C-alpha cells in the first residue's frame, strides 16, 4: 500500500487541479463579416474593394482588404464589446477604430452606414 500512496496522491492532485472551467465566449460577433464596394476610377474602370473581418473568441481577429481580387491589406485587430457597441482597433496601423453596433446580421456605424454583413 505504501508504494501506491504517492501515485494516488499525485493522481488526486492532477484531477482536482484540472477541474477549472474555461470561460466560453459565445459573443454573436464571432465569425466572418464582409463588405464589398464598387467604384469607378478615372479611366472608367470599375474597382471592386472587398473587406473581410474574422472575429475570434479571444477578442482578436484578422482583417483583409482586396482590390479586384488582389490582397492589398492584411492586419490583425482586437475587439471589445462595451454596452451595445463593438470597438475594433487595429494596433500598429494608422487605421482609426471602428465603433459599430450589431443589428441583426450587420455591423452598423453610428451614422447608419453598414460596415459589414455576416457571412452565411
Descriptive overview:
Residues 1-17 form the signal peptide. The protein has one helix and eight strands; from the N terminus they run αββββββββ. 11% of the residues lie in helices and 51% in strands. The chain starts with a helix and ends with a strand. The protein has a single domain (31-118), classed as Lipocalin (Beta Barrel). The protein has 120 residues and is mainly beta. The protein is elongated. An eight-stranded antiparallel β-barrel has the order 1-2-3-4-5-6-7-8. A hairpin with a 2-residue loop joins strand 4 and strand 5.
Helix content: 10-25%
Separation of the first and last Cα atoms? 60 Å
What fold name stands as the CATH topology?
Answer: Lipocalin
**Can you summarize the main beta sheet?**
8 strands, antiparallel, barrel
